[in-house]
Amino acid sequence: MSSPSSALPAVANAPVLSAIAAEIGTPVYVYDAALIRTAYRAFADGLASHPHAIHYALKANSTLALVRLLRTSGAQADANSGGEIEVALRAGFIPEQIVFTGVGKTADELDQAVSLGVKAINAESPGELDRIAARAVALSTTVRVALRVNPDIDAKSHPHISTGLKTNKFGMPLAEVRQLYRDHARQPGLEPVGLHIHVGSQITSLEPLTRAAERAVDLGRQLRDDGIGIEHLDLGGGLGISYDGSPVPTIAEYAAAILPAVTGSPFSIVIEPGRALVGAAGVLLATVIDLKQYEGGLRFAVLDTGMTELMRPALYGAYHRIVPIEPRPGDLVPYEIVGPLCESSDIFGRNRMLPPLEVGDRLAILDAGAYGSAMASTYNRRPLPAEVLLDAHNHDATTARRHDGKAWRVIRRRQTIDELLSTEL
Ligand SMILES: Cc1ncc(COP(=O)(O)O)c(C=O)c1O
User: pTM to 2 decimals?
Assistant: First the structure.
């Protein structure tokens, strides 16, 4: 377990955040490249004893510069849509480094993946296997496929991000997969090479992940007995991070929990981490734009950022630590930290004990690197926020700014209202 911590992560370094807010404005996402590289290395080191491939789940954050950063760190890619395949290619991945996952894939997306020749399409149903085969035959090619198995394992995560129960829409029931492979995977155009399991996200107990790996190995062996050449087991993503500072399993502990199942098996493993690579590396920086207190009631701090930039609290009731980047002296008092949108769910935190705030103060919402900017919307015609990368290895004098010994650069400028409207006729 990582130790509990009230200390701020390096990315919440106040002087550089103040400098970024002053120059770029808020809301702005700020990521720390060093934290992402360290997390990637932890996966690679943890799994070093077994053949493996770490496919970064672009869905967590597909901002090009971060995807490139993970590619140059050694990652491969897990894409969940045609758009994410395109981002992966533009970030420099070759098709053989991309697995294509997704509970529903359009005909165009299947054509894209089939004609590119991706490393594997993770297929969700017998019908999808048939459609992939038809496209492959039409394009005179063969496609590597891995059927997604629903192992009926409770990830013990939030119901909205648990995917491995038979009541969920994902994959095919474990008990049916052997027959499905026999019936559908031997047809022309298909090369069945893998099994895919992903039981959920923000998983903070390793036992479901161990059990899923064990079930994948058992099933893989049965399929090999049937003469189906399973080569890899894609164990999905799912490792959680600590949003409140309490201990969670480390990446090394995660690796140690899945390795026993696969060690000695004939299978290489693929994993698809997203959150554990980028989640803790990002903060969302905001400005207090209003303060009010009901007579004898709650004290509200309204930010210039809301569920449009970071949807997780509104979507899942997710908790994020919130800290003033330059705390004022004074006693801690309770605040309702809210966004500016006309939605009662647009709340980042209730009853947060913070030093006194004033309009204009900057707050950092921590651990916002995953499922933050990737889920941002333009509701209320709010342009998408800017994004900045802190990276000591960026020596490009033309793009990098420096402050307090830290180099940073804008990796996505704030969308303009003209850009937001540019598709409308
Ligand atoms: C199929 C699949 N793979 C990988 C991931 C990444 O999960 P996480 O960000 O929890 O590691 C997800 C997210 O839910 C997913 O659905």
Answer: 0.95
